[in-house]
Design brief:
There is one protein chain. The termini are far apart. The protein is built from twelve helices and no strands. By secondary structure, it is mainly alpha-helical.
Length: 276
């Protein structure tokens, strides 16, 4: 006797219902359309207003200001990193006096505009020439570049101190206890166990701080430091061509993008052991 079996076709998953065109999707599309229009407008402005003779005349001068910008940021970030360590330690100290001093320092430099701090150093300390002459330091404070370097270093030290403090406090208490169990001195435990882990956590915020310093460095042009923006302003004062500032913006964008890729590579390199 033959038994007939019914072949049941496989069930296909139901098609996902198309989402209605909501207000959020409309606003997102509108926002993207505005950005695309802005970029198209910038590209058209560069193309229509491009003067080859002007470009080749002033582009090398703007590039000549790039080493000034990079050196200013590199030195100030390095000095700020050195200063941030004792400030962060004082901020975490059990001493009420050290803690309050560090708090006031961080509060002031993070809470006031960088341009105001630059003015205070450049113009304010310039009124103390007789005092600096007596200690043979006027050579430093009479130069706008050195004043910008000092103000930038003090500013970024406050931000880096908070980055470092947060990173150190993110390391679990068990790391300190394990170091004590191994008989490590408190300083050696901090330097060889806690700090390396904290720096990995702080790597991304440090990169953001450097990017912010690169963009903020444009303000030094107001105190006659001829960095990228200083050379751009001087070129504009001679040509009255607004495309000068577009070229400067593109140059800053290239520098920031190169730094971003470098920092991503560095972060991937230093944290490769965490992905295993």
């Amino acid at each position: 006797m033959t038994i007939a079996t019914e072949i049941i076709p496989p069930q296909l998953p139901p098609l996902a219902a198309e989402k209605p065109y909501s207000l959020q999707r409309f606003l997102g599309s509108l926002f993207m359309g505005i950005w695309i229009a802005v970029f198209v407008g910038i590209a058209w402005t560069l193309y229509s207003g491009f003067d080859q003779e002007t470009f080749w005349k002033y582009a090398p001068k703007m590039l000549a200001g790039l080493p000034v910008t990079l050196s200013l940021v590199a030195i100030s970030v390095t000095v700020g990193a050195v200063l941030s360590v004792p400030v962060a330690m004082a901020r975490m100290s059990k001493s009420r006096i050290l803690n309050r001093i560090a708090y006031v320092y961080i509060y002031f430099f993070r809470g006031t505009p960088l341009i105001a701090q630059l003015y205070l150093v450049y113009y304010g300390l310039g009124n103390l020439r007789s005092v600096f002459d007596s200690v043979d330091l006027w050579w430093f404070f009479r130069e706008a570049y050195y004043c910008a370097l000092l103000s930038f270093s003090l500013n970024t030290a406050a931000y880096q101190a908070e980055i470092l403090r947060g990173a150190i406090e993110s390391v679990s208490r068990g790391q300190w206890e394990a170091s004590d169990a191994l008989g490590l001195h408190r300083w050696h435990a901090f330097r060889k166990v806690i700090l390396p882990q904290a720096l990995i956590v702080a790597l991304r915020p440090y990169g953001n701080e450097i990017v912010l310093m690169i963009k903020a460095s444009a303000i030094v042009s107001i105190v006659t430091v001829f960095d990228v923006m200083g050379e751009t302003s001087r070129a504009y004062s001679r040509t009255y061509d607004p495309n000068m500032y577009l070229w400067a913006a593109i140059l800053y964008l290239v520098v920031v993008e190169a730094l971003r890729h470098l920092w991503n590579w560095m972060e991937a390199r230093l944290t490769r052991h965490l992905k295993r």
